[in-house]
């Protein structure tokens, strides 16, 4: 199978299970660094899909820690919260290892002699020159620009990291630890099931999805980050204007723009009431282009993905992104729509988010991946 977006979505469940099995060795370096210093609170700094993954993981991190964990975009950190975060254990995240904004922060922290850790999917990226504390978080050789595997494995890595820290500090009991590990394993299985159903849904609603022109994505709690990531994927691949909301925010004004040509997606997993499902049914009164991932037993309708496993809400982001990832990957490929407008190259040259050597580094990463496959 060609190593495109679909490939990396397809292998995500398996790789997350592999990472779960080797969780202690995978997280050892970062856990040791954390436990060796006197800072307790953690600050996660990222952008793009990495930021969305950190947001998605945060409810789980807070549940299994006795300290505070902040998640900041690079702009928030640099422009607003820099001084406040100085006494936290700082983790910077760049899957490519070539993010110019992350490198700017690294330079500043080095100048101030402030310690930090870099989480990355590319140990040979440009950012590796600015730190001795680098961790590859288990994504391996994802060699495309549109992050999918890296998003899911990053969420899982952060969850596993906080479990290992809590377990080693004896703040998490043996039973709590084993229960959380079992739930993560179940979520890996649900990722594969969600992907299988996403493929079926795309075939059933193929024409609707090919013609999708405007989209709204709705999710709550940890899955607000999932719909944020889904909106990013739809915009960068399908080039479809997409916004995301919490369920109650959606019906407090944004729903007034709805017309029958809108596509609206809902995540109804880990919920304790029928409120979001009621909002979904009300939206159907305006547009039939409604889709839902749910783990509740409702009146099943066309356009739904049903997850037969009720997991805590903070676990569900490990699988709920699969629908948006697959639609972005498959429909964009079917429409041959990955290419941006010709003028986009001018904008990218003027304000590139990646270092100048990014193309060379990614080419070398692809070549290493091929060599590893060929033995």
TrEMBL record:
Pfam families: SIS. Signal peptide: none annotated. One of its GO terms (biological process) is UDP-N-acetylglucosamine metabolic process. GO terms for molecular function: carbohydrate derivative binding; glutamine-fructose-6-phosphate transaminase (isomerizing) activity. Gene3D superfamilies: Glucose-6-phosphate isomerase like protein, domain 1. Residues 30-172 form the SIS domain. InterPro entries: GlmS/FrlB_SIS (IPR035490), SIS_dom (IPR001347), SIS_dom_sf (IPR046348). This is SIS domain-containing protein. It comes from Coprococcus hominis (ex Liu et al. 2022).
């Amino acid at each position: 199978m060609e190593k495109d977006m679909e490939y990396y979505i397809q292998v995500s469940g398996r790789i997350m299970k592999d990472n779960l099995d080797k969780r202690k060795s995978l997280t050892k370096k970062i856990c040791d660094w954390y436990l060796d210093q006197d800072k307790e609170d953690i600050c996660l700094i990222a952008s793009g899909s990495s930021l969305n993954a950190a947001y998605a993981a945060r409810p789980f991190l807070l549940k299994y820690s006795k300290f505070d964990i902040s998640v900041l975009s690079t702009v928030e950190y640099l422009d607003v919260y820099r001084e406040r975060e100085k006494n936290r254990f700082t983790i910077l995240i760049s899957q490519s290892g070539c993010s110019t904004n992350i490198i700017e922060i690294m330079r500043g922290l080095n100048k101030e002699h402030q310690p930090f850790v870099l989480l990355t999917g590319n140990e040979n990226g440009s950012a590796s020159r600015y730190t001795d504390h680098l961790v590859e978080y288990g994504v391996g050789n994802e060699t495309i620009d549109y992050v999918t595997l890296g998003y899911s494995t990053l969420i899982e890595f952060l969850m596993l990291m906080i479990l290992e820290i809590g377990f080693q500090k004896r703040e998490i009991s043996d039973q709590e630890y084993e229960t959380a590990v079992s739930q993560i394993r179940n979520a890996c299985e649900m990722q594969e099931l969600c992907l299988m159903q996403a493929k079926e849904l795309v075939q059933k609603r193929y024409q609707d999805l090919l013609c999708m022109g405007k989209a709204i994505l709705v999710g709550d709690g940890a899955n607000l980050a999932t719909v944020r990531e889904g909106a990013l994927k739809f915009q960068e691949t399908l080039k479809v204007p997409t916004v995301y909301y919490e369920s109650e925010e959606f019906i407090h004004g944004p729903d007034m723009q709805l017309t029958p040509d809108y596509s609206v997606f809902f995540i109804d997993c880990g919920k304790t009431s029928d409120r979001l499902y009621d909002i979904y049914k009300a939206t159907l009164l305006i547009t039939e282009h409604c889709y839902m991932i749910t783990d509740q037993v409702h009146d099943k309708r066309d356009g739904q993905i049903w997850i037969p496993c009720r997991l805590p809400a903070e676990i569900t982001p490990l699988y709920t992104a699969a629908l948006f990832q697959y639609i972005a990957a498959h429909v964009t490929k079917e429409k041959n729509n990955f290419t941006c407008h010709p003028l986009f190259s001018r904008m990218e040259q003027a304000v590139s988010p990646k270092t100048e050597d990014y193309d060379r580094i990614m080419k070398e990463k692809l070549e290493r991946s091929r060599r590893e496959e060929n033995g």
